[in-house]
Specification:
By secondary structure, the chain is of the alpha/beta class. The chain has five helices and four strands, in the order E-E-H-E-H-H-H-E-H. InterPro entries: YeaO-like.
């Protein structure tokens, strides 16, 4: 079982304490070169749907509803395999969920970290 699940911006310096580094955004972060990302995986299929992402627009006032809708998406067929894979990663390694979002606390990475923790990893 993983000792830690963390969320960070992909633009931050990587750390040996990160464990597995997984990008959970659907689109590649602007200005980030792939060789500078120090990723173990880019799991774009775990990201919110394009429609949900655009609706949310990173407006904190919509976060509770975004969270509810995103958690519902995690159970649908389009996300199921990626969700299972992320759960397996969290069960075996420390995990850092990466996003380009400026407000990590109001991002899909934060929702995923909470979701993984609540599922007992």
């Amino acid at each position: 079982m993983a000792a830690q699940i963390a969320c960070r911006r992909i633009y931050e310096e990587s750390s040996p304490r990160d464990g597995k580094r997984v990008l959970v955004d659907r689109v590649w972060p602007r200005g980030m070169r792939k060789e500078d990302a120090h990723l173990d995986e880019w799991l774009r299929d775990i990201a919110p749907s394009t429609e949900l992402r655009k609706w949310y627009g990173h407006e904190p006032s919509r976060f509770a509803e975004f969270r509810r809708r995103y958690l519902a998406e995690l159970g649908d067929a389009g996300h199921r395999e990626a969700a299972r894979h992320l759960h397996d990663l969290a069960a075996h390694d420390d995990l850092t969920l990466l996003t380009a979002t400026k407000d990590v606390g109001h991002s899909q990475a934060a929702v995923l970290a909470e979701w993984l923790t609540s599922r007992g990893r």
